[in-house]
Amino acid sequence: MTAVEVSVVLPAYNEADTIEQTVSITLETLASFLPEDAYEVIVAEDGCSDRTPEIATRLANEDSRVRHVHSDERLGRGGALAYAFERADGETMVYFDTDLATDMSHLEELVNAVRVDGYDVATGSRWMPENRADRPAKRGIPSFGYNTLVRTVLRSDLKDHQCGFKAFDRQALETLLPLVQDEHWFWDTELLVKAQRNGYRVKEFPVDWTPKGDSKVDIVRDVFGMGSQILRTFWELSVSPRITREVSLGAGTMLVVVALLLMTQYLDPDRVLAEMAGAAPEVVALSAVVYAVSWPLRGIRYRDILVSMGYRERWGFLTGAVFISQTGNLVFPARAGDAVRAYVIKARRSIPYPSGFASLAVERVFDLLTITLLAGVVMMGLAVTGSAEQLLTALTGDTVGGDAASSGRTAVAVASGVGLAAIGAVVAIVASARTDRNFVRAVIGRLSSDSYADYVAGVIEGFVGDVQTVAADGSAFTRVGIGSLLIWTFDVITALIVFAAFGYSLTPSLVAVGFFAVSVGNLAKVLPLTPGGVGLYEGAFTVIVASLTPVGVAAAIGVAIVDHAVKNVVTIIGGVASMAWLNVSLTTAVEESQSTDAIEPETND
């Protein structure tokens, strides 16, 4: 009996109508150029729901050259191939799609490229100049764009990465498989790219190819799946290796410098100093101390959110993580600095990304709800006293002129929309937490029927589940709500102390307007028109204060500028200190979190 030299794996998912014919043609083609018993055909059946498992079992029983590798659950295309290859016996590993779109006359060339010619990897190509593949536009255009993107971003020398017609040397494949992270449609591309990066010899040759069945762009698979995997592989291969400790610390320092420069660009330092010249410096310093006190409260609140999700961490570490992410928000657009916190807690405490982002979502919703309620309560008071009409006049008339009025009108409009959205989000979260319906699967199922959709749905379900956990826990909901109220009360008190530094008495009227102005200003900052929300905050603050109190426009602008400057400076100082304390930077956080696998958290008492 001749030892098995070639293992052919046929990935099969619900192929009951075609698998028997595919196996028959494969055996016949292999027999035309290989000795009897020198090959095996493995049906890699990936959790099928039709008769494919029964057919594969029968074929294996009838022919010793056929094997059936079964998976109870869907592993994804790449996962099923890797699972079968690990159980194959041949020294040359081959796979091709079961629809036999690639002409089987090329099988001998594919096998012998590895078995005889000594290549580590061989792959068919539909995009080489001499090939004769028939590609309709709906297949050809997306395929051409995808392969161009891979060649450009991942620096691959190949023309076609997704042709389902490949062969591997066993030793090379055993080395490459642990390096491949994707388990779905990107598996082919990642394996080919990493084979090239690791110096393996790869042969690409033209094949005749005829499309089988229908094909369409799948939003989940092609856009979310393949696109995100290209970016992930680019980071892993091209960015991460260049981030040494020295580079990451230097980059983190530079980002802090950029934050300071941006702050001075939007907050004219001469103007800030001029405004502060008329204020009591010791009182301004007191406002900074009071604002700094609110940061441990942010860490404690974040701890309470994570505890409700099953992760116990020390509030000190979490306060540092919040400082780092908020410093990032002064640099990155669209509050992208929030994502840095998810990286930090993943890298330092192994909290999975879905849970990290879910905790951020909960925190943001509570922030918006709290300041919306604060603004709403004061607004009702203004309506009762008739002061609301003064504010409306200021927004529509010339009471407050110039840039402050324009910025203020925009800010109040944005704040109104954000406030309504926050209330809607809370209602939706609480309602969804009280129902057993799975909205995630339903929505994604409408967008995609591909196996990758199951993976994406699982990730999103984890995210939604964590958010719902907090909403469904009455005790956690109350603790986080009280924490949010304290945090934003300190934020308002900071502004009120700045008023005192400018010599204004903190009358009940000014305190109420201060709560309203700070709340609306912070709601307006959600729209990332400028770094750190600088501009909209000052505009909303000025219009509200100047129209509802005896404070003049110039003085109101001065208070707003100093108030925002104090808060940004405290944030940056805290961010720098936290980076040094935790020994991370904004780039280190990203570099240390390459894996997106869910890992059980450590428990810290």
From TrEMBL:
It is found in: Cell membrane. Pfam families: Glycos_transf_2, LPG_synthase_TM. Gene3D superfamilies: Spore Coat Polysaccharide Biosynthesis Protein SpsA, Chain A (3.90.550.10). GO terms for cellular component: plasma membrane. The keyword Transmembrane helix applies. InterPro entries: DPG_synthase, Glyco_trans_2-like, L-PG_synthase/AglD, Nucleotide-diphossugar_trans. GO terms for biological process: protein N-linked glycosylation. Keywords: Cell membrane, Glycosyltransferase, Membrane, Transferase, Transmembrane, Transmembrane helix. This is Dolichol-P-glucose synthetase.
